[in-house]
Design goal:
Order of helices and strands: HHHEEEHEHEEEHEEHEHHHHEHHH
Radius of gyration: 23 Å
Distance between the termini: 48 Å
Number of helices: 14
Structural class: alpha/beta
Number of strands: 11
Strand content: 15-25%
Length: 473
């Protein structure tokens, strides 16, 4: 049995423990920086598997690092466990059925993400111990990926400074090496302040902060025609100034997400949006203050690691789904539109797949229509050579951040997919551990990219993570 087959056996020996971990995290969905129970579940597993544990990594109560081994290179596996608001859903049910409670749900599969990454780290640890091979494996429990930029704070705190390579994955419709395309993203709050007045008797004495927000939104909408087509700008009203229409709103707040293909493009857009906000304040005789809430960089690719992961995926093959998995996926697909399903195929450049689950491996050179979001993994990729897998865990066409993702989060396909992800990740890490030339090539590729565009954290120096209070027991 060669080293890769051996480490895959180590994954299989403990798969049931980590499938159960994924299910427990699914059952206790928590939002960004509030993942106290989910973090504790991961901490208990790290302790049970014999890792050395650092809690409150980067000063974040729901972040942690587990390490095992000694000497040699440092191989990092990155996990997440945050959920989303408004996506509560009963498991295994192919119709909207929210559960009682706060309405949170794992609509992006992060319950699987953290569990599989920790399973990969555990298999690597067990291999190092059984073979007496020098090397260190780390599991990074990373909270608040959904808009919280925790990894960006962790990078800024130096937690990746001695890492040789970093490996991650994400639940998906298709199994492939991630193309390393993401948008740099900053979230800013714009707070307008005006003057209250009686809206009927003395409107001339008022200065409406809500009018300023609306004018700002109009200005940004006109700007959309004159920005790169790959950029994205969206907003949400945080405070409309109250519910009384007969009072001129003296205060209003809007949050903007500004995205671009790289940091330079994002910063240029931020400057333009800031000017529009100032113009809206000038037109309404109000005052405006802006504050960065979070920020992440675009992903930086790494060709040697991507090729190594592709080799591992091709040897591993597609996820071994069974007929029960296909049947439930077909039920989920029945809740989707043809456009949903076509869109998913277009994203990876594949002709329509014959079944509701993808049980193959997408070629490394396959290119589809770029449909790009943002992730704080981007900042890790600027700090250290990084590679990410996408592993099939749900029905083709399932939109991200949907109740359908939540519904599939404890299904057989999810369990098989997370184990498959662990095998792909640990095989890639093992290839680097046993072949120093791969790490050297990955670092050379990384250095060459940084030489063209040096990294600068998108976070303001004074910005701190928005820590949430620990819930009452």
């Amino acid at each position: 049995m060669d080293a890769t087959a051996r480490v895959w056996t180590l994954v299989d020996e403990k798969r049931s423990l980590f499938e159960a971990l994924s299910d427990r995290v699914w059952e206790t969905p928590e939002l960004a920086y509030g993942e106290y129970r989910s973090c504790l579940e991961h901490r208990k597993m790290l302790d049970a598997q014999g890792f050395r544990i650092t809690e409150e990594a980067a000063g974040i109560p729901t972040a942690l690092v587990g390490e095992a081994g000694a000497g040699g290179p440092v191989i990092a596996f990155l996990g997440e466990y945050d959920a989303l608001p408004g996506l509560s859903q009963a498991a295994g049910v192919a119709e909207p059925r929210p559960l009682p409670g706060d309405g949170y749900g794992h609509g992006c599969g992060h319950n699987m993400l953290g569990s599989a990454a920790l399973l990969a780290a555990t298999a690597m640890k067990d291999y190092l111990e059984s073979q007496g091979v020098p090397g260190r494996v780390r599991y990074y429990g990373c909270p608040a990926e959904e808009g919280g930029a925790a990894k960006t704070f962790m990078v800024r705190a130096g937690l990746f400074d001695d890492v040789d390579i970093a490996i991650s994955w994400h639940p998906a419709s298709f199994t492939r090496v991630d193309e390393a395309l993401s948008l740099a993203n900053t979230r800013l709050d714009f707070h307008f302040e005006g003057r209250a007045a009686h809206a009927a008797a003395a409107p001339h004495l008022g200065r409406s902060a809500l009018d300023a927000v609306e004018l700002m939104n109009v200005g940004v909408n006109y700007m959309r025609e004159h920005m790169p087509s790959s950029a994205r700008i969206h907003y949400a009203m945080l405070d409309a100034g109250g519910i009384a229409p007969n009072v001129v709103q003296a205060s209003a707040k809007v949050r903007y997400a500004i995205r671009a293909r790289d940091l330079a493009g994002m910063r240029a857009l931020i400057e333009r949006v800031e000017k529009i906000a100032q113009g809206a304040a000038l037109m309404t005789e109000t005052r405006v203050a802006s504050k960065v809430v979070s920020a992440v960089s675009n992903l930086l690719g790494n060709t040697p690691l991507e090729r190594a992961m592709q080799h591992c995926l091709e040897r591993l093959g597609g996820v071994p789904f069974d007929e029960e998995d296909y049947d439930f996926a077909a039920q989920i697909q029945a809740t989707l539109t043809a456009t949903d399903i076509d869109n998913d195929h277009a994203r990876v450049g594949l002709a329509p797949w014959p079944r509701a689950l993808h049980d193959g491996v997408v070629a490394l050179d396959a290119r589809g229509e770029p449909m790009i979001g943002s992730t704080d993994l981007g900042d890790v990729s600027w700090a250290v050579p990084t590679v990410q897998a996408r592993i099939a865990t749900h029905a083709i066409g399932t939109p991200g951040h949907s109740w359908q993702i939540t519904a599939q989060g404890q299904a057989g396909a999810a369990h098989k997919g997370l184990v498959h992800a662990a095998k792909a990740m640990v095989a890639t890490g093992l290839a680097a551990l046993l072949d120093p030339s791969l790490i050297e090539a990955a670092k050379e590729d990384h250095a060459a990219r940084l030489a063209r565009t040096p990294y600068a954290s998108p976070l303001p120096a004074e910005l701190k993570p928005p820590i949430q209070p620990r819930p009452a027991e």
